[in-house]
Amino acid sequence: MHAPVPDPRDRLIVALDLPSVGAAESIVSRLGDSVSFYKIGYELGFAGGLGLARELIADGRKVFIDFKLHDIGNTVARGVASLAGLGASFATVHAYPQTMRAAMEGKGASPLRILAVTVLTSYDAADLTEAGYAASVAETVARRVAQAREIGIDGIVCAPTDATSVRAALGPKGAIVTPGVRPDGSDVGDQKRIATPFAAIRAGADHLVVGRPIVASPDPAAAARAVQAEIARALS
User: What is the DSSP string of 58-96?
Assistant: First the structure.
């Protein structure tokens, strides 16, 4: 068994995939104490979101910087060192061995946890074939998880449909973070390999990333609490 995270609030990461800091601040305000963990990706990050990340961290919230770094080793290491200085809890890199090694070097002794992205949840077998990969989605995920475990990466980002096999390959200590989580009745959007919050937790996920079903809801706090209720039900 992997170590539990006792508070369902800490299992839910709300994706602030929004076009401006003002829009993100509005959602954070409406969510209030119902959410303790936020993700900031490219869209908000490039619109001034790193300043918001600092404010959230100073306010006692956790922040996941989802920039999926992949570059020459020195550039990755230095970028990760900057994120460690920011006080982020999670940061993503693509699961290529050189990139993962550089990220682990860059974080040093900081508590920042490096998450390796295996295959994006918006990709299926046809997308991998188009990109020139001969292996299937499952084979590609398995290979990258094995390499990540050997390197000592802190966790894996994978589709919820891959969580069971990833947990078996990763072992009990690494974190599994799953985007592509959609409560029953939610719009699938551009995701292809999805699951409900209940199913994702039962499959072995530690943290669920949920964006549009919460931030686009008429009542974001109620939507967040509904996801947390599913998480609690899965844990029980």
Answer: HTT-EEEEEEEE-S-HHHHHHHHHHHHHHT-SEEEEES-
191 is in an annotated binding site: yes
Question: Is 32 annotated to bind ligand?
Answer: no
Cα–Cα distance measured from residue 127 to residue 136, given in angstroms and rounded to the nearest whole number: 10
Q: Which among 134, 146, 136 has a CA at the least distance from the CA of 97?
A: 146
Give the residue extent of every domain in the chain. Answer: 8-235
Token pair 């230095």: residue: 78
Residue 23 to residue 170: CA distance in whole angstroms? 37
Query: pLDDT by residue (tens digit) across 47-101?
Result: 999 999 999 999 999 999 999 999 999 999 999 999 999 999 999 999 999 999 9
Q: What is the CATH number of domain 8-235?
A: 3.20.20.70
Residue 133 has a CB neighbour count (10 Å cut-off) of 15
pTM of the full structure: 0.89
SS3 37: strand
Cα 119 from Cα 154, distance rounded (Å): 17
Residues labelled catalytic: 66, 68, 71
